[in-house]
């Protein structure tokens, strides 16, 4: 239902912006966030990443490593607008933090390095934002660096992200001489003088006027191609007015048809005020996004962003602190106050709101209530997990939770002392509660406690958190990757008869299965339902429909462990071609058992292949170290996909098995005298060579 426009124009929600800062590691996300907080008066001193004084990187590990690890929420006010910001990690190992943050955001600022342009993780988080339909504006940062090139960065945005970049600024000066920008909408210059906290506005410099007019014309033409109102005005007047252009840019941003591109240098405090103005002008308020959708008794329902509507909110982060359990919540509809009872719709459990906090990273300000559009932390919830829906008990609604990625790297962990075993179990349970991309299980063969995560760094951070937060000495085994198994050659017509008679009602089920590999495009290597397809060609009612569903469920059960090494099975199609029932002894349980045991027998009878996870590695090294790095990548079974020169360095892109990357950081440092860096991005699974298969089986 559309919100009444007269009510909308006066609603406080029109002055709220919920946005995230997205980028590749080291592109400057945290510095941009720090400058936003400083210029809006939320902080009184500019924090620096290299000094460990930033607000959002408050965890000791973040300050030690110099990177963002945990998504941090902050809030500020600009021009009468409440801006809630989530600074997200840029490292691939912590992409699940980005996923959970994007689920509750209305917009985002994508930050790009003016030298590197679109980097691998920039592309990955952009795709995540695409999946959630989150409108974005782009900020090309670090224009003061040697080799900075706005046009090159913009070209990479268009080519790699498949969007239309709409550049609204022209830099004044290059590299060390960068001092400001030309605003192409208002045709004015904005100059930041060293030592000043704000800019000086003036006319476009004479030397840049011709170039500014040319770029304004390019912007008008690009917008006119995408926006009907701008096209109509352009055809009538051969130009587009500032007002029409601004409205068109807002519409194109919110539909995702184009992305507004601004530029600056956050470290030098240049370009942040126009960025904030663009956030207010172009990114949506909670009223500008579609009503949140959920289910109630199986029926899909919508709930508008209205403080007077029944309460509905989504938990996107849980954090245990020294003072208690903090539950981070996006309020989509309704109002909550201290002491209110709420329903955890997924767990059908009642909870009570103890306190409501406005979040400023690791600092909090108490609030009396939170309304639709707010992002807050609440105290008092005992069991709500990340992804839980909280709603009014009288109007239940279940929202879709964020999806957690499947872990790909595993280590065995154990307490140094037997007396600490229980404390370790408690610490691991708390870790998994805070970070759903971590998983803990007990290996049935060895009895070891196994911790799984998204990468080597992810697990290092998790183990170090146990040591620091809980004071535990923890032993860690060598990392292992999560292999998968798939069908290389299947079997046809495998008959399996399940008969059990031990007094009373018996069990009888007879199934005939064809098992074959899925086409590579359908086998995603995740071991999930997308890598499995079940068909039935049974005719004449020989197997009733309810029993066919039971056979499918049994086959899915069998995919948990393959015959090669007990790894999950993916990339398989199973067809039920025939079967038989018994008038008294057949049941859904019997056919589920027949499906499970029958598929296991079929997998053992066919030819299986092992799949290993691979990642795209982007290595940046000095020119004189290229040969050594290429040789090392080849030794790690890497396949080089590309190589480019950039300001005295080489950027090498290669696909490498994840198992071969353990310890690569130290090896790269030694081969490049500490000057080389690398990033990774998961790309899926590929067949493992016989040497790996043999090693896995023998282990």
From TrEMBL:
GO terms for biological process: ribosome disassembly. CDD domains: EF-G (cd01886), EFG_III (cd16262), EFG_mtEFG1_IV (cd01434), EFG_mtEFG_C (cd03713), EFG_mtEFG_II (cd04088). The keyword Lipid biosynthesis does not apply. One of its GO terms (cellular component) is cytoplasm. One of its GO terms (molecular function) is GTP binding. Keywords: Cytoplasm, Elongation factor, GTP-binding, Nucleotide-binding, Protein biosynthesis. It comes from the Bacteria. The keyword Hydrolase does not apply. It is found in: Cytoplasm. InterPro entries: EFG_II, EFG_III, EFG_III/V, EFG_IV, EFG_V, EFG_V-like, EFTu-like_2, G_TR_CS. Residues 14-287 form the Tr-type G domain. Pfam families: EFG_C (PF00679), EFG_III (PF14492), EFG_IV (PF03764), GTP_EFTU (PF00009), GTP_EFTU_D2 (PF03144). GTP binds at residues 23-30, 87-91, 141-144. SMART domains: EFG_C, EFG_IV. HAMAP family: EF_G_EF_2_B. Catalyzes the GTP-dependent ribosomal translocation step during translation elongation. During this step, the ribosome changes from the pre-translocational (PRE) to the post-translocational (POST) state as the newly formed A-site-bound peptidyl-tRNA and P-site-bound deacylated tRNA move to the P and E sites, respectively. Catalyzes the coordinated movement of the two tRNA molecules, the mRNA and conformational changes in the ribosome. Belongs to the TRAFAC class translation factor GTPase superfamily. Classic translation factor GTPase family. EF-G/EF-2 subfamily. PANTHER family: RIBOSOME-RELEASING FACTOR 2, MITOCHONDRIAL (PTHR43261:SF1), TRANSLATION ELONGATION FACTOR G-RELATED (PTHR43261). This is Elongation factor G. The lineage of its organism: Bacteria, Bacillati, Actinomycetota, Actinomycetes, Kitasatosporales. The gene is fusA.
């Amino acid at each position: 239902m559309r919100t009444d426009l007269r009510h909308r124009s006066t609603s406080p929600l029109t002055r709220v912006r919920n946005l995230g800062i997205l980028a590749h590691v080291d592109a400057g996300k945290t510095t941009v966030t720090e400058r936003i907080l400083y210029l809006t008066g939320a902080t009184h001193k500019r924090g620096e990443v290299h000094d460990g004084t930033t607000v959002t990187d408050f965890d000791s590990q973040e300050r030690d490593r110099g990177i963002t690890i945990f998504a941090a929420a902050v809030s500020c006010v600009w021009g009468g607008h409440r801006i809630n910001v989530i600074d997200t990690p840029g490292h691939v190992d912590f992409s699940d933090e980005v996923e959970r943050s994007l689920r509750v955001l209305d917009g985002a600022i994508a930050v790009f390095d003016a030298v590197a342009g679109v980097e691998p993780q920039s592309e990955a988080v952009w795709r995540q934002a695409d999946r959630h339909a989150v409108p974005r504006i782009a900020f090309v940062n670090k224009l003061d660096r040697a080799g900075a090139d706005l046009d090159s960065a913009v070209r990479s945005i268009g080519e790699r992200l498949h969007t239309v970049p709409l550049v609204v600024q022209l830099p004044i000066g290059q590299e060390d001489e960068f001092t400001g920008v030309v605003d192409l909408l208002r045709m004015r210059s904005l100059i930041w003088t060293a030592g000043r906290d704000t800019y000086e506005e003036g006319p476009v410099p004479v030397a840049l006027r011709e170039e500014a007019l040319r770029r304004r014309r390019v912007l008008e033409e690009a917008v006119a191609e995408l926006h009907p109102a701008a096209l109509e005005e352009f055809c009538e007047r051969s130009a587009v007015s500032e007002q029409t252009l601004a409205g068109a840019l807002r519409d194109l941003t919110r539909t995702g048809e184009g992305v507004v591109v601004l530029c600056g240098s956050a470290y030098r405090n240049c370009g942040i005020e126009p960025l904030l103005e663009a956030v207010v002008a172009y990114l949506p308020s909670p009223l500008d996004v579609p009503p949140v959708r959920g289910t109630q008794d199986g029926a899909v329902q919508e709930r508008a962003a209205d403080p007077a509507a029944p309460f509905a909110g989504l938990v996107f982060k849980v954090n245990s602190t020294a003072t208690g359990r903090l539950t981070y919540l996006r309020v989509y509809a309704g109002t909550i106050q201290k002491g209110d009872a709420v329903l955890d719709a997924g767990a059908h459990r009642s909870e009570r709101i103890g306190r409501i906090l406005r979040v400023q990273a690791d600092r909090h300000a108490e609030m009396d209530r939170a309304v639709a559009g707010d992002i807050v932390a609440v105290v008092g919830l005992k069991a709500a997990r990340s992804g839980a829906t909280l709603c009014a008990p009288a109007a239940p609604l279940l929202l879709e939770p964020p999806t957690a990625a499947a872990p790909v790297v595993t280590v065995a962990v154990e307490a140094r002392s037997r007396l600490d075993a229980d404390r370790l179990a408690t610490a691991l349970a708390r870790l998994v509660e805070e970070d759903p991309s971590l998983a803990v299980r007990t290996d049935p063969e060895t009895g070891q406690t196994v911790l799984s995560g998204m990468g080597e760094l992810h697990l290092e951070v998790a183990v170090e958190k146990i040591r620091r937060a809980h004071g535990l000495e923890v032993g860690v085994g060598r990392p292992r990757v999560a292999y998968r198994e798939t069908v290389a050659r299947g079997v046809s017509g495998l008959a399996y008869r399940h008969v059990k008679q031990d007094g009373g009602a018996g069990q009888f089920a007879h199934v005939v299965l064809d098992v074959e590999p899925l086409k590579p495009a359908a086998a995603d290597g995740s071991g999930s339902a997308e890598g499995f397809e079940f068909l039935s060609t049974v005719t004449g009612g020989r197997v009733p429909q309810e029993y066919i569903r039971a056979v499918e469920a049994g086959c899915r059960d069998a995919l948990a462990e393959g015959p090669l090494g007990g790894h999950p099975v993916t990339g398989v199609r199973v067809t039920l071609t025939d079967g038989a029932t018994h008038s008294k002894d057949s049941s859904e349980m019997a056919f589920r058992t027949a499906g499970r045991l029958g598929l296991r027998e079929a997998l053992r009878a066919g030819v299986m292949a092992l799949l290993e996870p691979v990642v795209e590695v982007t290595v940046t090294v000095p020119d004189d170290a290229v040969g050594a790095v290429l040789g090392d990548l080849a030794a790690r079974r890497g396949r080089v996909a590309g190589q480019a020169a950039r300001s005295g360095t080489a950027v090498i892109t290669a696909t490498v098995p994840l198992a071969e990357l353990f310890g690569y950081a130290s090896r790269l440092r030694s081969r490049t005298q500490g000057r080389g860096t690398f990033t990774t991005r998961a790309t899926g699974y590929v067949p493992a060579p016989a040497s790996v298969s043999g090693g896995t089986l023998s282990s």
